[in-house]
Amino acid sequence: MSKLKAITVETTVNASLDKVWRFWTEPEHIKNWNNASPDWHTPKAENDLRKGGKFSSRMEAKDGSMGFDFGGTYDEVVPNKQIKYTLDDGRKVDITFAKADEGLSITETFEPESQNSTDMQKLGWQAILDNFKKYIESNNGSNDKN
């Protein structure tokens, strides 16, 4: 669909691969990190993590002024390594998880949409990724289910 150049965002988290995979894919965790700024939240998340499975999350401004659904279908799932999916609007996303010197590297490459600037999209996706890093690194106690 998109003819714009793919955008890549990445981070490195200080957490085990198993924990990163769990926090990235389990709806109760997704609801805690899937927002780009503190004035947004994700009140609903569903995830059928398998090839052909669907996922969706509802992202809303906390003041109720706006919101949108974000969802798609998994094209490939390699546990603890890679997730590829197609968004409901036809754009492709590829996420890889790999060991790095400082912990675990997460790289997301996605096809941009044409309504917002690529810079704005990159900042938004990076902010969500940074929020994931903050969430997982602040949940490093023995009770991982918070």
TrEMBL record:
Organism annotation: Gelidibacter salicanalis
Domain named Activator of Hsp90 ATPase homologue 1/2-like C-terminal: residues: 14-137
Top-level taxonomic group: Bacteria
SUPFAM superfamilies: Bet v1-like
Protein name as annotated: SRPBCC family protein
InterPro entries found in the cross-reference section: ASHA1/2-like_C, START-like_dom_sf
Pfam families (UniProt xref): AHSA1
Family: Belongs to the AHA1 family.
Coiled coil: none
